[in-house]
Amino acid sequence: MSMQTRRVGESGLEVSRLGLGTMTWGADTPISEARQMLRGFVEAGGSLVDTAPAYGQGVAEKIIGKLIHTDLRRSDLVIATKGGFGMHQGRRRVDTSRRAMLDDLAVSLRRLHTDHVDLWQVHAWGEAPLEETLAAMDQAVSSGMTRYVGISNYIGWQTARAATWQQAVPGRARLVSGQVEYSLLARRAEIEVLPALRAHGMGLFPWSPLGRGVLTGKYRRGIPRGSRGASEHFSWFVEPYLEAKSRAIVDAVCRAAEGLDMSPEQVALLWLRDAPVVTAPLLGARTLEQLEPLLATEELELPEPIVAALDDVTGGQNHLRAR
C-alpha cells in the first residue's frame, strides 16, 4: 500500500499525509505495541513520525531509535522531534534558551541513534529572547543536526513574528511548519494560526485530530474503562471535551459515519486531513487496533455536502476553504 505524500508548506520536505504521534509511547503504549504500530504505519506507506524529549521522558525517542535499527531503515522515516520543553525534577519546564535547545537536540540524537532529524521544532513559546531560540535552530541546520525547522504550540502573532524574523535575513533557516491542536472540537486555529501559517508558506501538523479521542464516539455513554478519560494522568486532557456542546458535535459525526458506512474516527480524520493548510494530522493512537481504521482512509474522501454540514455544526464555515 502507498500513502499520498505532501510537501510541508512551500519547503522541499515531503511527508506522508498522515503522521504518527508518539506522546503515549513509554507510558500507555509499551514497546511491543509501539513496534507493531510503527511497522503497520510504514507498511501502509506512512513516513512522518513525530516525537519529543518530553514524551515518556525520553522513552518515545529511545523506542524509535531502537526500531530503526532492528525493524526498519532510517530512510523509511521522516523523524520530527522538538526541543525546549520537558520534565525537570518532576515539574514541567519550558526553556528555549540556546543552551537548552541545543542540549535537547544533542540528547535526542543520541536517543534516536541517528546523526540528524528531518524536522526539529520549538515545543512551546518560552521566556528566552526569540532571536536566541531561532539562532539555535539556525545553528542546528547549518551543522547538519536537522534538515528543517518548525514551531509547535505558537499562537497567531507568535507564529508570524517567528516566521518574519527568519525570513528577514538571507541565510536564516526558514520555518517550514507549525503544530497546534486542531479538530472538529477545536477549530480556534482557523482564526489566526492557520492564516499566519498560510501567509508564511508553512504547513500544519494538527495534534489531537480526533478531539483527544472524543470524536471516536466512545465517550457517548460514559467514560469507558481503559480509556484516556479513565486514566489518572490523562483524564484532565479529555475532560474539556465531555460537555454538552461537544456531545452534539460527536452525535453529528456519528450520524455522518452511519450514512457513509464509515467509523466516526474516519469521518473526523478525513474532515481534517483535507482541510486547508493541513499537511498531515498526527495520529495519537495508543494501539494498532486504534490505528488500523485510520490508515484505512487512504482511498476515502468526504462528500462536499458532509464537509459543509460538519463545518456548520462545529462553528460555521471555514473561511480558508475554497467553496
Automatic annotation (TrEMBL):
SUPFAM superfamilies per UniProt: NAD(P)-linked oxidoreductase (SSF51430)
InterPro entries per record: AKR, AKR_Detox_Biosynth, Aldo/ket_reductase_CS, NAD(P)_OxRdtase_dom_sf, NADP_OxRdtase_dom
NADP-dependent oxidoreductase domain ranges (all copies): 17-313
Pfam families cross-referenced by the UniProt entry: Aldo_ket_red
PROSITE patterns per UniProt: ALDOKETO_REDUCTASE_2
Matching PANTHER family: NADH-SPECIFIC METHYLGLYOXAL REDUCTASE-RELATED, OXIDOREDUCTASE
Protein name as annotated: Aldo/keto reductase
Species of the source: Luteococcus peritonei
